Amino acid sequence: MKGSDAEQIALTYLQRQNLVLVAQNYRCRFGEIDLIMRDGATLVFVEVRMRSNAAFGGAATSITTAKQAKLLHTARHYLSQLNSEPACRFDALLLSGSHGQEIEWIKDAFGE
């Protein structure tokens, strides 16, 4: 399964949870955010991770502190373009299984 497939599964799942897509694959010089969504009045930056098995710690351990720092930088860049800064959080959507059928949604997975 490719990363784009995992992101589509994640997007569909989150939309079923009533989140609204704002941007997909937002890129700037600092990095990329897979999904930016709205959960009510909250802007949610979503990191999607796929692991077909739990070797090497699974999907959650692949979001290292260095990756978190890049995501924070990228999110700050995105927010700097808005007129006002909404409430924000960082979620992780972890997919596992051979076809991403096992989904774990970690709200407020990290932040500052």
TrEMBL record:
Pfam families: UPF0102 (PF02021). Keywords: Endonuclease, Hydrolase, Nuclease. Coiled coil: none annotated. It comes from the Bacteria. GO terms for molecular function: endonuclease activity; nucleic acid binding. Belongs to the UPF0102 family. HAMAP family: UPF0102 (MF_00048). This is UPF0102 protein SAMN05216333_11249. It comes from Nitrosomonas oligotropha.
